[in-house]
Each structure stands twice: as C-alpha cells, then as structure tokens.
C-alpha cells in the first residue's frame, strides 16, 4: 500500500498504478481522452494534467500527466490546483478549435465523452477566430459511420484497432494538425471488432451505422442488461429500445467475461429482431385468416390433450423455455433438437468441463495464460471474443519480461509495445485452414480434424514422458499456466478427448492447465446440462404424434429429406419461434414468441456460467412473450389447473431447480422480482428520458399507466432508484457528469476491476476429478476422387440469427468450396469455376476458391450460410 | 588553433577516401580503442573529456553511454545511431562534416559502438542531404573493404554493421525517439521517456543516438586524451565547436572554433559584421528553436552554460541574425509556420497550439491583429512550455516567440495599432 495526498487529503492506494486510474478509482472527476482502462496510457492528449509535489515543503509543484506518472510510496498531488485546471481547460480549448460543434446532429450527442470533458473543464468561450480544418469522410462498410471532422486526435481508435485487436486496415495518416484516422482508401473495415470503435472513440467520428437508421439519443432509450445470443461465449450486452423497436446493442462490462468489448456479430446481429424474417403473427397451415390468441391457444391445448406430444428443445432457447417444454410434454418425450453427433459432442464437452483435469477458464481469464494450444477451432469466426482474448494472452509473457527487465509498468502501453515488438508467448494452432490468429502463433499446423486429434494425443504422450524433442510439449511444460482451447465446430469428438488427454497429462506433471471449450450456440451448454437425448433417438416416436418444436429450425440440423419424412409422420406440428424458418413453414400452427429483447431468461455459456438476460420492453404485439410463458399456460390448460396470470421467471426457475438440481444457482444470476433499493425499482430509462407524456399522444392524450414487470426488479420507466444497482441488473452506465460509456469507471470497485458487488453470472459447473479419455483417434480413408469436406465458419453468416441482420447480410460470403493447388490441378479446374459435388447423396453446385494452405485431401465448405441450406459436414465428397 | 574536426576537410575537394583518411591519421582511434582499451575505459575517457552532445541538449556523452546495459545479461543486439537529420532552420554544421569527411563520422561510430558493444549502426540522414548520402555510402563501402566494418574488426571479437538510412524530411526525426520510430518504419512520433533509448531504443533494444558532430569528436579524444580535448576550449565544456552564422551579415558561414568563443567575435570577425546598411537587432544563438538574444548579450561566451544564463540555449551553435530591416513579427511567423507544419500531431498542445500561434502571427503581420492577440501569444508561450507537451518540439518552438514578445513587443503593438506591417 502507498500513501497518496490529493489536495492534502490522505488516501491509501496501490503503489505502481498510474495516478489517473488511481484518482478515478478514488472518485475524482479527472478528464482524459487517450488513456483507456483496457489499453493503458500513452500520454498523447495531455488532458489529465495534475500538479505533483516533491514533498511537503514543495509549494510550486510540477505539472504532470497523471496517466504517465506512477503512484510512489508517498505521493503528493493536487487535482484542483489552478495551474492544472487552467491547463486542462486550455487542452479542451485547443481540441475544440477544429471540432465542428455539431452536437445537435451528431449521433454521439448525449453520450459523448468530449461533451462531458468539455463541461467538466469549464471551457465555454471560443477565442479561436480562424477557419476550421476539414476532412473528407470515408465509406467504412455497413457497420461503422465515419465523420472525421469531429476528430480530436486521441489516437484511441488506432490503438484499439491495430494494437489491441490486431487490425491492419485502419491507420493514422498525414501529420501536424491534419492527422487523419481512416483507411488507406474507402472500404469495409476488415476487423471483427470494428464496432468497438464506436465506444472507444470519445466523440462522434466512429458511430454505429445501424443505429443511424433508427436513431435515438441515449437518454431516450429504454435499456436492459442482456446477454449476446450469437455464439456460446455469452458476452454481456446492453440492449436499447425506442418506439417498440430494438435499436442498439452496446457492450456491458463484465470483468470475467467480455471486459469492455464485444464483437461485431454481437453488436450488429440484433437487427434480426427488426428483419423481415421476424415472425410476428401466428400462422395456421392452409389458412390465412388471423385468429385470436385464445382461439389458437385453446386449439393447441385441445390438440395436446388428445394425443401424445413430442417436444424438441433448442440450444438457442433459454433454460426456462427448454424446461417449460420438457414439463409440458414430459421428460420421456422431450428431446434436444440436435443431431446425435452434436448431442454427443456437447455431452463430451460438458463432461470435460466437469472432469476436473483442468481449471475452467472464463473468457477474460484466457488473457492470464502464458501458453495456449488451440485444437481445431477458428476462434475469430466461431467465438470472436476468445480470439481477442488470445491476442492479449500472447503478450503476457513478453510484457512480464519487460516489467522485470526494465521495470515498465503494465499500463505504460506505448513503451511496452516498443520493448516487446513482435515477440509473443507460446501459441500453437492446429486447424484445417489458415486463421487470423496464425500471425501471432508460435507454430501453425494445417491438418484434418482426425490428424489434429492424433497430434493432441501424441503431445499428451510426450508430456507424460517429458520428451524434450517435442517443442510443443516442452513449451506447455515450461509454461506457468498452459491453456487448451478446443471446441465442437469441426464435429469431431476426438478433439475433445485429445484436449482432455492433454490437460490430464499436464496435470500429472504438476501443472494446473486451463480449458476453454467453444460450443455452437448461446445455450448449447444449458441444453447439454439438461441431459436431454438427441431427437435423432426419437425418430421412431414421431408416428402420429404431435410435435412441438421450440425455437429451432430442424432444417439447419438435419438433411431436408430426413426432416420432411419425419414431419410428415406427425399428426400435427406446432412451433414456437421468433423468426420465420423452414420448419415453421411445415408446421400446422406457428406461435410467434419474443426474441431476447422481448423476453426474460437465462443462458449458460461455454464455461458453464449461467447469465440472466432481461426483457428490454413489452411489445405492443401481445403474441411476443417468452416461450416459457406460453408453454406454462398450455401446461395449465392441459392439466386443467388455473393459469397463473402473474407467472414470473422466478417461479419457473424454482420449478426448474426442483426438477433439475444441476441448475441450482441460476436463481442467483440476478436479484429477484421483489428486490428493491430504498423501496424503489431500478429504472430502465435514464432520468432525462423525454417525451413520455407525448410519445403516444397521437393515440391517446392520457398518459398510459407504466407497464409492470413481474419478472425483474426493473421498471419500464425513468422513475426509480438513482444510484448503482446490482451489477447483474444494471440497465445502462451513467453517472453525474459522465454521460458516455466512460461512466463505467463509476460502476467498478476500482478502474478496470470487477463491478460493484461482483461481475455478473454464476458458474454452475463444479469440476470433480474423473478422467476417461479415449487416447487415439479414428482414421477415415479416402478414395482417389474423394475429399474430406470440413466446415469453415464465417463470423458473418454462419450463425442463424445474426445472419438475418441487414448489415451482416452485406458482409456474408456467397457459398463456395475451397481447395488447394494440387486438388485444383488434379481436377483441372480454375478458380471461381462452378463444380458439382456429391455429399451424402445430395449434389451441390459451388464455385471454387483457392486456399493454398489446406492439405491435399481437404475441401472447405462454409457452415450455416442461409443460401447454402443444410450440408452434412464433415463428410466425404466426390467431385465431378 | 587546432581544428581537429575540420582539419581534413578541404573546400571544393572530394572527401578523403579511406586510404587517404588513414594516411592523414584516420582510423587510429579505432585501433587504439579496439586493440588497447576495454569498452568501459572508452566510456570513462569520453566521460572525463566532458564532451557534451552537439545536437542541442548538451548532455554529457560519456554519461549517456554509461546507461547502456553491459555484460552477460545485457541484450545481445544493441544499436548505435548517428543523428544526421539536421533540420533545425539555420543549421548546416553537420552537413559540413558529412560531406567533408564521412570517414571521421564512421570512425566515431565504430568507437562508440565498441564502447557500448553495439553490433548494428545506422546513419539517419536528412532527406535533402543528397550529396552526403552519396559520400557516406561510398565511405561505408570503403570502410567495409578496409576491414573497419563487418565481422571481427581488426581481428577482434567485435563486429559492427553500418547502414545508411535516408529520412523523408521531417523535423521531428531530429528528436531521437521519433528518429528511432521512423527508423523502425513507424510514424515519426516521439516516445515517452523513461524508458530511455539507452535501455529500450531501436526495436526495443539498447540504443545510443548521438549527433554527427558529437560522434566526429570521439576519434580525436581517443587519440589525444581528455585533457587535450578540454584544453581546446575557452570554457568548461570541452573541445571545439562548429559555429555558424546566417542572416544579413557580410560573410555567413560555418567555422570550427574553440568552445566558448564570444558571440561578438563570431558575428563581427568571422561573419564580417552586419552587411552595409543593416544594423544588428537580435540573434537566435543556436538555431530556430532558441530564445532571441540582443545587443547586450553580444559578449557572452558561446557555451552551454553561458548562453543558458543569458536566457537562451547554445542549441546547435548555429545562429541566425535579425537585422533592423527585417520585421520581427514576420520573422517569428516564418519560424512558427515551420514548427506548426513540422509538429508530428501526437500531443494536443503542439498539434493545436502551434497552428493557432501561427495564425495569430500571420493576422498581426497582415495588419489584422486584435488587441488581445498579444495576450493569447503570451499564454501559448507559457502553456507550450517544457513538461506540458510530449516532447521538446513545442517548447523549442515557442522560445523565439516568447523572447520576441519580450524584446520586440513594440513591433507587435505597432502592427496591431497601425493595422499594417511597418516594415512593408
């Protein structure tokens, strides 16, 4: 501990941190621009100036930038010294000389760090009388808008984009008062994390382009804390609504999961909620007339009362909805809407996490490992934020080295990067094709999934025998904290076994390895934890039964012909979903339900962390309720018990825990609906929410009664508790004087640390030691004209829901097949030529792409593209 | 009077070849240092000679070298860099050394590299010095051929590989850390210190960046000793110095003179005094980024301490004389225009403050100045001072401004009151 005197008041603080973060943690309002808690200090903007004094007798002091000065054993500073205040005010005046002052038409207005800092320093009178410099803006793609005139040159954008996220196509150009932040020429930003520019930029240079189409000021939003639905990592997000429409997703800080950032799929995939693919009205087969709710629900309840029902759950439905369906149809009739293979993969993944051979790493903890092996997972495309975390992890070893050898503080970003240069810690990547992380890898091996698994087993054996000849085994043994990243995306169970064997071998050598398993969907783990057999096991049951499909498109999981056959065997098909799917088209009754922003529930992410997502708003469309709510109603009707009109999520969770005790803990993911602070609810809207009395005046001049929320302690209005709510129920970050997202500092125990009362989420998996891993992999043999088709994933397009978002569709590739040079030569074809392939008795016509790095007998086929339909991957293809 | 630096430089003749340089006593210092001295002895000798950096800051060179990590645990790659990015307006002393005797620089660099055990060297040359580039390239090839560069120099275990890097013409690159960034292929923005380049420099490795003139002094100190070097000087700073005078003087030029020669002697004797019809008004003693001195200061010694006590800096030792027919506002505007343009754009005060200063000066010069403009200029001069900005560019840039406001304030006021430039 060190002693810090701030304007002669004593504080106990941590030695070695910089004075800016220390002052912010102590609650001082010290303005800054270039410093960022995740990116450290560079000292460029000069905004955070304070006075520092040598000792008690020093009355003159010295002006320093607080972000660049460490806290010493005893440090004396003044934040409010007139010299420092004058200088900080002058910095803003300088920054403002060229700023367009277009707040009224700027998307950032109202959540702008530059506005906040300008007010904070007190600069309010313009003395600069000369013309402003102007720039041309660039087209940066469908996600990010560029307005360079607003730039104050804090360099945060390039520091995030290039240094932190490894992007290549955004840079600084020109010099002096004409520096330009943009691309070499107009074009789509290539980074998967470009959306964070909108949050990193302290003003309106980079803004969310999708928000522009239905813009609202921050203060006019209704927000709720939510969880991203577009991959298995469960990044925390804030979802914002205005006029009954989901309009914006921003990152919600969680020090254990996503930290400050989210990926572009998570930020922009929300548009699915407003897309034409959205299911808003019930559909009855062969009948286009619309029916009342009561009629349809009664219809369904009559149907299910008369026949046996089969329920199919979903890896993208909440735990509560899956459970409600299980309750409705009975445990023996409830099946996971996954292929047998996928079911098995998820079970093996769960067992691996439970096995105790490795510590389960959280997403953010990845950054703390000093040697990483990835076995068959293209993180950038299957779990993008994990790729971002790996980029930070490989810096750990050289950064620690810099700290030891030349005594550099961990926040001294530019100096650290200078010292570290291109050095990085051990990262070994095994994958069928090149991935974006290859550039930071120690070694990359391109191989088939089977070969990767057998490599994993081989390294495990080498670790056990301490074979020095194997550099990977040696590196893992040398590391203080080795991490194994694996996943289900290549549909190869041996990869998971190999990861388990690797971890086990390290454990036997006295190491504490970490494991991180990527899964397919946002609640794959939740469905796996229900231990529900695959629907493939129940195909025989379909005969003359009623089938209820929950938020699942079977046509994405099974060959069309097989699904057709199955569905035809059913007496009636009832589906509950929020988007239009091929399965819905076949259903007799389609019930529209609320998408995540219209629903409450919990998801379990890839590390077994249960996380709560809250309803953002209650749609006017009365159909759009949670699936679990509909299913509970149906159950009541079926059992002729009273319908609980005030059914709350808490009640469903209690039932769930009772029936499935492995879910104990999900009730703690958020405070319950009766929770109050000072007797008040937590408001979903900022207190400056405007036009409440006028917003529906065209319909009725009387202000309607605010809607009630039975499921959470949050109100749908601006009234309520004005302070820091529990971390899991924080709808937005705002603090007096801090209107922008930078206000997050005020919600953390210390800057960059955990949120007050802890980071949200409850880990449900408690590892207990068992180890049963197969120790060898299968071998597939291929004939001369056969190739092994392996899925290749695309961040934009491979995931079902986000693929329907307009902006993401612009970035989705067209279907293709990728082959290497020798395959192309052998077939005598040219790049882009359309070839016919046969896979699983189906033929497909695909243009050929050239991938030089893949091995001879591999063909890559994009996974999950809407334009492609279901393809049985991996599989053996023959090419004509 | 001894003139070690320029002894072998002959106007209108090509520089000495390696062979000729050797015949004139060249590369003796390399032999002396590499064969007879340990690296630490070289560092000690240079320290003792009190050689101060000739690039402007005037830091003890031997001291600077002594911060480089040495021994077993030190990084294996270290760098020596010659700062030949001479872009200070009014300064042309290094050019004389670079074009006149490139082998002297190379010899200095070999000894310096030996002292810190650097294995790679770079000459970072100003883009506009085309002729120097040709001559240095030739000299480097010759030095390799003679075995003074390359592996196992003079049969010792010491190796040095020397490269010429020509910049793209940015003033900023004169700042040693910005120079290193540029050398790495990055933007020429300065780095925060600490860590100093001696510890984390080029490519994150220990690096010494020395001015060309500084390095050229090294061989002579090795050959003749510290006491000899000190004896060359009129002042406590050792050695000779290349001084330059430009402006409306009769014979502008560059001369090697004992350190501490008086300003009056320089202007009146060596530069031949003011041109007929011009009167002396003031002088920037060490290049564009130093404070004006005036008539009353003419007798001060041109060494680091004396000039600093008079309220300015020796800088590069190459002065620009202001006469009575040149408008001081226009003069300062010209300088500030240069500095504003050469700001790298990294930190706010320099990037936004200097263009503002430039615009105010321009409007005053155009007769459009307002009464509060002088106050604004004062404020900028104060707020752009040392410590407030990321590097020394802006503090240097406002030195001529603040002293012009001090000594020539009436000129500024006249411009504003008469609504025109009185010198037009």
TrEMBL record, chain A:
Gene3D superfamilies: 3.10.20.740, 3.30.200.210, 3.40.50.740. Residues 1-85 form the 2Fe-2S ferredoxin-type domain. Keywords: 2Fe-2S, 4Fe-4S, Iron, Iron-sulfur, Metal-binding, NAD, Quinone, Translocase, Ubiquinone. It catalyses: a quinone + NADH + 5 H(+)(in) = a quinol + NAD(+) + 4 H(+)(out). Pfam families: Fer2_4 (PF13510), Fer4_Nqo3 (PF22117), Molybdop_Fe4S4 (PF04879), Molybdopterin (PF00384), NADH-G_4Fe-4S_3 (PF10588). It comes from the Bacteria. Residues 221-277 form the 4Fe-4S Mo/W bis-MGD-type domain. One of its GO terms (cellular component) is membrane. Its cofactor is [2Fe-2S] cluster; [4Fe-4S] cluster. Residues 83-122 form the 4Fe-4S His(Cys)3-ligated-type domain. One of its GO terms (molecular function) is NADH dehydrogenase activity. GO terms for biological process: ATP synthesis coupled electron transport. Composed of 13 different subunits. Subunits NuoCD, E, F, and G constitute the peripheral sector of the complex. Belongs to the complex I 75 kDa subunit family. This is NADH-quinone oxidoreductase subunit G. It comes from Solitalea agri. The gene is nuoG.
TrEMBL record, chain B:
It comes from the Bacteria. It holds the Pfam family NADH_4Fe-4S. SMART domains: NADH_4Fe-4S. Its cofactor is FMN; [4Fe-4S] cluster. Its EC number is 7.1.1.-. PROSITE patterns: COMPLEX1_51K_2. Residues 329-374 form the NADH-ubiquinone oxidoreductase 51kDa subunit iron-sulphur binding domain. One of its GO terms (molecular function) is NADH dehydrogenase (ubiquinone) activity. InterPro entries: NADH-UbQ_OxRdtase_51kDa_CS, NADH-UbQ_OxRdtase_suF, Nuo51_FMN-bd, Nuo51_FMN-bd_sf, Nuop51_4Fe4S-bd, Nuop51_4Fe4S-bd_sf, Soluble_ligand-bd. Keywords: 4Fe-4S, Flavoprotein, FMN, Iron, Iron-sulfur, Metal-binding, NAD, Oxidoreductase, Quinone, Translocase. It catalyses: a quinone + NADH + 5 H(+)(in) = a quinol + NAD(+) + 4 H(+)(out). Composed of 13 different subunits. Subunits NuoCD, E, F, and G constitute the peripheral sector of the complex. NCBIfam families: nuoF_fam, PRK13596.1. Belongs to the complex I 51 kDa subunit family. NDH-1 shuttles electrons from NADH, via FMN and iron-sulfur (Fe-S) centers, to quinones in the respiratory chain. This is NADH-quinone oxidoreductase subunit F. It comes from Solitalea agri.
């Amino acid at each position: 501990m060190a002693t810090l005197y701030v304007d002669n008041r004593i504080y106990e603080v941590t030695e070695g941190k910089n004075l800016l973060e220390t002052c912010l943690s102590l609650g001082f309002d010290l303005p800054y621009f270039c410093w960022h808690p995740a990116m450290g200090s560079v000292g460029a903007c000069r905004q955070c100036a304070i006075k520092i004094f040598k000792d008690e007798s020093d009355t003159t002091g010295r002006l320093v930038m607080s972000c660049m000065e460490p806290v010493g054993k005893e440090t004396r500073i003044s934040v409010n010294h007139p010299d420092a205040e004058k200088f900080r005010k002058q910095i803003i005046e300088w920054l403002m000389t060229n700023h367009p002052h277009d707040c009224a038409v700027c998307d950032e207005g109202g959540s702008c760090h530059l506005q906040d800092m300008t007010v904070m320093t007190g600069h309010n009178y313009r003395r600069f009388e000369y013309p402003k410099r102007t720039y041309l803006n660039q087209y940066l793609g469908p996600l990010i808008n560029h307005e360079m005139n607003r730039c104050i040159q804090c360099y945060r954008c390039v520091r995030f984009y290039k240094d932190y996220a490894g992007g290549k196509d955004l840079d600084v150009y020109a010099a002096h008062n004409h520096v330009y932040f943009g691309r070499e020429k107009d074009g789509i930003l290539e980074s998967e994390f470009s959306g964070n520019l909108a949050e990193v930029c302290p003003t309106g240079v980079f803004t969310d382009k999708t928000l522009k189409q239905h813009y609202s000021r921050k203060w006019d939003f209704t927000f709720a804390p939510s969880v991203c639905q577009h991959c298995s990592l469960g990044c925390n997000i804030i979802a914002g609504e205005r006029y009954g429409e989901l309009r914006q997703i921003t990152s919600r800080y969680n020090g254990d999961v996503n930290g400050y950032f989210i990926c572009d799929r998570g930020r922009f995939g929300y548009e699915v909620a407003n897309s034409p693919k959205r299911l808003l009205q019930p559909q009855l087969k062969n009948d286009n007339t619309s029916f009342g709710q009561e009629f349809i629900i009664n219809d369904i309840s009559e149907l299910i009362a008369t026949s046996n029902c089969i329920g199919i759950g979903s890896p993208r439905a909440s735990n509560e909805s899956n459970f409600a369906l299980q309750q409705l149809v009975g445990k023996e009739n409830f099946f996971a809407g996954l292929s047998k293979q996928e079911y098995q993969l998820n079970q093996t993944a769960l067992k691996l996490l439970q096995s105790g051979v490795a510590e389960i790493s959280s997403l953010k903890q990845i950054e703390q490992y000093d040697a990483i092996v990835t076995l068959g997972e293209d993180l950038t495309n299957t779990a993008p934020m994990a790729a971002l975390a790996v980029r930070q992890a490989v810096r750990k070893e050289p950064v620690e080295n810099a700290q030891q050898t030349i005594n550099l503080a961990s926040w001294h970003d530019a100096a650290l990067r200078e010292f570290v240069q291109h050095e990085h810690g051990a990262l070994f990547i095994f994958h069928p094709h090149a991935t974006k992380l290859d550039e930071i890898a120690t070694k990359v091996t391109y191989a088939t999934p089977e070969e990767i698994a057998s490599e994993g087993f081989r390294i495990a054996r080498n670790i056990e025998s301490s074979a020095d000849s194997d550099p990977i085994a040696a590196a893992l043994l040398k590391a203080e904290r080795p991490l194994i990243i694996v996943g289900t995306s290549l549909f190869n169970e041996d990869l998971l076994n190999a990861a388990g064997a690797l971890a086990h071998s390290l454990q036997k050598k006295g190491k504490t390895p970490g494991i991180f398993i990527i899964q397919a969907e946002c609640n794959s783990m939740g469905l796996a934890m229900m231990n529900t057999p695959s629907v493939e096991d129940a195909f025989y049951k379909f005969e003359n039964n009623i089938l209820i499909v929950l938020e699942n498109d079977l046509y994405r999981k099974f060959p069309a012909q097989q699904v057709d056959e199955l569905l035809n065997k059913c007496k009636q098909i009832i589906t509950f979903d929020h988007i239009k799917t091929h399965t819905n088209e076949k259903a007799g009754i389609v019930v529209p339900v609320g998408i995540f922003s219209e629903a409450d529930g919990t998801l379990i992410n890839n590390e077994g962390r249960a996380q709560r997502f809250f309803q953002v708003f209650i749609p006017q469309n009365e159909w759009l309720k949670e699936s679990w709510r509909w299913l509970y109603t149906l159950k009541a009707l079926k059992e002729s018990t009273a319908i609980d009109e005030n059914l709350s999520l808490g009640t469903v969770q209690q039932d769930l825990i009772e029936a499935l005790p492995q879910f104990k803990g999900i009730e703690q993911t958020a405070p319950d609906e009766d929770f109050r602070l000072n007797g008040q609810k937590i408001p979903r809207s900022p207190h400056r929410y405007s036009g409440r009395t006028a917003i529906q005046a065209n319909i009725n001049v009387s202000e309607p009664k605010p809607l009630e929320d039975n499921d959470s302690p949050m109100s749908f209005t601006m009234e309520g508790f004005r302070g820091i709510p529990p971390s899991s129920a924080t709808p937005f970050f705002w603090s007096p004087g801090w209107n922008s997202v930078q206000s997050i500092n005020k919600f953390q125990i210390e800057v960059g640390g955990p949120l007050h009362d802890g980071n949200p989420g409850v880990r449900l998996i408690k590892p207990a030691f068992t180890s049963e891993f197969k120790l060898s992999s299968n071998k597939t043999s291929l004939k001369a004209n056969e190739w092994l088709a392996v899925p290749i994933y695309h961040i934009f397009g491979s995931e079902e829901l986000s693929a329907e978002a307009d902006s993401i569709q612009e970035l989705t590739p067209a279907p293709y097949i990728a082959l290497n040079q020798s395959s192309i030569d052998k077939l005598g074809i040219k790049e882009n030529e359309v070839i016919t392939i046969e896979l699983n008795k189906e033929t497909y016509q695909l243009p050929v792409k050239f991938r030089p790095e893949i091995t001879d007998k591999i063909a890559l086929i994009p996974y999950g593209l809407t334009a492609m339909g279901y393809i049985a991957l991996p599989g053996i293809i023959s090419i004509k | 009077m001894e003139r070690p630096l320029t002894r072998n430089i002959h106007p209108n003749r090509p520089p000495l070849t390696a062979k000729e340089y050797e015949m004139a006593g060249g590369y003796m210092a390399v032999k002396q240092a590499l064969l007879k001295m340990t690296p630490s002895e070289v560092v000690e000798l240079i320290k003792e000679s009190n050689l101060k950096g000739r690039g402007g800051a005037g830091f003890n060179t031997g001291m600077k070298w002594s911060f480089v990590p040495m021994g077993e645990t030190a990084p294996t790659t270290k760098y020596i860099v010659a700062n030949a990015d001479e872009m200070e307006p009014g300064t042309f002393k290094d050019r004389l050394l670079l074009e006149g005797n490139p082998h002297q620089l190379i010899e200095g660099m070999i000894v310096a590299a030996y002292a810190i055990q650097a294995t790679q060297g770079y000459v970072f040359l100003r883009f506009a010095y085309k002729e120097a580039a040709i001559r240095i390239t030739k000299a480097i090839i010759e030095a390799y051929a003679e075995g003074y560069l390359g592996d196992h120099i003079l049969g010792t275990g010491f190796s040095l590989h020397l490269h010429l890097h020509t910049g793209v013409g940015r003033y900023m690159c004169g700042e040693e850390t910005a120079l290193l960034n540029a050398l790495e292929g990055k933007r020429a923005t300065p780095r925060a210190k600490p860590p100093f380049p001696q510890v984390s420099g080029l490519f994150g490795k220990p690096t010494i960046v020395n001015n060309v003139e500084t390095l050229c002094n090294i061989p002579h100190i090795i050959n003749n000793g510290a006491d000899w070097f000190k004896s060359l000087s009129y002042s406590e700073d050792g050695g000779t110095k290349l001084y330059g005078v430009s402006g409306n003087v009769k014979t502008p030029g560059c001369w090697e003179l004992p350190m501490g020669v008086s300003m009056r002697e320089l202007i009146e004797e060596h530069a031949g005094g003011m041109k007929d019809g011009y009167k002396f008004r003031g002088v920037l003693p060490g290049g564009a980024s130093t404070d004006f001195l005036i008539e009353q200061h003419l007798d001060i010694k041109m060494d680091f301490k004396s000039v600093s006590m008079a309220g300015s800096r020796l800088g590069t030792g190459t002065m620009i004389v202001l006469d009575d027919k040149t408008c001081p506002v226009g003069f300062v505007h010209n300088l500030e225009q240069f500095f504003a343009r050469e700001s790298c754009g990294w930190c706010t005060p320099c990037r936004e403050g200097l263009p503002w200063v430039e615009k105010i000066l321009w409007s005053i010069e155009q007769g459009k100045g307002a009464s509060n403009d002088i106050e604004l200029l004062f404020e900028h001069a104060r707020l752009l001072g040392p410590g407030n900005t990321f590097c020394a560019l802006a503090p240097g840039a406002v030195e001529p401004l603040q002293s012009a406001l001090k000594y020539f304030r009436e000129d500024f006021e006249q411009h504003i009151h008469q609504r025109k430039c009185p010198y037009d």
